[in-house]
Amino acid sequence: MPSSASRVYQSQKEQPMTESAGPDGLPATRNPYVALAAHIQRLEKADLGDKAALARLSPDQPLRPNEIAALSRALLAAGLEPDNWRPATWQRWALIAHGIALAGHDGKGRLGVQLARAGVAESRVTKLLTARGDAFTQLLPSVLRLLASKGVAPNWHELGPLVLKQDSEREDLQDTEQIRLRIAGAYFSQQARTAAA
Prior knowledge:
Layout: H1 4-14, H2 32-46, H3 48-56, H4 65-77, H5 87-103, H6 111-117, H7 122-130, H8 133-149, H9 156-164, H10 170-196
Helix pairs in contact: 2-3, 2-5, 3-4, 3-5, 5-8, 5-9, 6-10, 7-8, 7-10, 9-10
């Protein structure tokens, strides 16, 4: 039986990747990354406390009550149903919400190109893409802070599935490696174009 992370990723693959808004200003798509990013963006005007809680949480640590509340509201607003999630799934979505609160979301560019445009060092990208488990969870927020400091929002259509599939079932390992290779390929291609210019 596929994990809830796999089901979210599979449903995301079936959904169009558009980011157009519906008549009520909410995303017209059911994509969880777009919906979560839109909710977190609305928090800047409506509830700075929830946005701050998401931006400050440490996904590799137990969540505090205010972080659980902010995360739960954000996940529900994004159309996710965390009622029966395992702790590992909560941790992965906490990392995604934390990352979106820190750096935003830009679904129009390739993540590897965004990393190169932000000037993230090759050694840091390589370390991030080869990290697994807790090491990945600890490295990602620092890379996201660097992106945010350069004014570059990452593409969560690529990064989100990578987070969700960390340490997942054997069937997802090949998908995870394909995601890593796509990110690396786009990064190194952009580095080569920049060097040739």
